[in-house]
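Support request from a user on the community tier.

User writes: "When I paste my structure tokens into the form, the page sometimes reloads and wipes my input. The last time it worked, I copied everything first. Here is what I submitted, just in case something in the input itself triggers the reload:"
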């Protein structure tokens, strides 16, 4: 009898330990403690035992029943809690993005980069950033800039005229100089990056639209030296050079006197390359001292104030900085090109 009790207990312990769900535990309970369960059957056989046997095995049988009830209850509770925990964990770790196709990430256009960089440099020198209209009048694009009707300098700018007489797509950003002077009193310092248009045949280095950046500085006692120092400081910052030689040549623009072409030492070579056309100099920065007629057109007294102005090709500088060899790529929308930036 005692061996039977022992065997039942061992069997019970094994089965309970292996039960993986509350349902399985319930089946075990029925198999051992149910109406026809092995422990119940054993207990019902007690009445056939002798008094002596009842005394020894009785307590063992009772103990077996209690053990069985305890083990079964314990396992059932454990499994119920365990299932709840697992469900909570699953919910917590649920990732809605799993299986989503990867979205392509966009980024700024190279034009935006270069404009922001240039603005940052001039802002650090205390300049303002100005904007102006792309459709302009003859007055702002030519007349106020000392280029009256029939002036041969008009031929330098292959102008897109609109259907409205006297209106045009601005051929340069110098238009903003006049607007800025009309709205402010000296000292004045600002730049105007923006789109310009010229009726040009399109090739790798010419487009009918491109970006320029105008600069204007007006105050008392302004000299050519200030212009050169500004050009050099700006170019050094843009091309990230500690030193950068510049060279000055005379240049003609009706709105400045004297006028200059400022070249910088080639930033790509020491002895000549295709970018500098073997000369080691790159032409980058036209400028000059603002012509008295232009100051007057802007409402500023040229006997009291002087100023310098410049108007570099922003597209061209951007192409130099990023090593872009075809201007047509900039507005092409070609992903292969754009993805490099
Ligand atoms: N506006 C001139 C151009 O487009 C450049 C320039 C600006 C030159 C200011 C001198 C001073 O050619």
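"...and here is what came back when it finally went through:"
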């Amino acid at each position: 009898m005692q061996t039977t009790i022992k065997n039942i207990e061992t069997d019970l312990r094994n089965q309970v330990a292996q039960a993986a769900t509350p349902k399985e535990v319930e089946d075990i309970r029925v198999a051992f403690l149910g109406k026809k369960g092995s422990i119940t059957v054993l207990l019902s056989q007690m009445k056939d035992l002798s008094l002596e046997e009842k005394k020894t095995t009785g307590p063992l049988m009772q103990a077996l029943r209690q053990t069985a009830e305890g083990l079964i209850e314990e396992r059932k509770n454990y499994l119920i809690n365990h299932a709840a925990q697992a469900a909570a964990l699953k919910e917590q770790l649920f990732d809605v993005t799993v299986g989503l196709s990867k979205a392509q990430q966009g980024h700024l256009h190279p034009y935006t980069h270069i404009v922001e960089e240039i603005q940052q440099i001039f802002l650090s020198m205390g300049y303002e950033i100005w904007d102006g209209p792309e459709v302009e009048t003859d007055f702002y694009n030519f007349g106020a800039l000392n280029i009256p009707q029939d002036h041969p300098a008009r031929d330098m700018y292959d102008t897109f005229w609109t259907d409205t007489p006297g209106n045009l797509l601005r051929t340069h950003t110098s238009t903003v100089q006049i607007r800025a002077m009309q709205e402010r009193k000296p000292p004045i310092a600002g730049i105007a990056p923006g789109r310009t248009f010229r009726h040009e045949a399109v090739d790798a280095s010419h487009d009918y639209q491109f970006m320029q950046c105008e600069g204007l500085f007006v105050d008392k006692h302004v000299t050519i030296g200030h212009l050169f120092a500004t050009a050099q400081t700006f170019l050094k910052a843009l091309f990230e050079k500690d030193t950068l030689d510049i060279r000055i040549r005379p240049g003609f623009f009706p709105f400045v006197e004297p006028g200059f072409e400022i070249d910088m030492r080639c930033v790509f070579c020491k002895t000549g390359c295709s970018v500098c056309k073997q000369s080691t100099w790159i032409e980058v920065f036209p400028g000059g001292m603002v012509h008295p007629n232009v100051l007057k057109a802007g409402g500023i007294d040229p006997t009291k104030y002087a100023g310098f102005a410049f108007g570099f090709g922003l597209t061209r500088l951007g192409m130099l900085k990023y090593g872009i060899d075809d201007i047509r790529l900039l507005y092409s929308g070609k992903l292969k090109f754009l993805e490099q930036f």
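Agent notes: The reload is a front-end session timeout and is unrelated to the input. Residues 261 and 286 are 4 Å apart (CA to CA). Residues 172, 174, 253, 256, 259, 286-288, 309-311 surround phenylalanine (CB under 6 Å). Escalated to web team.
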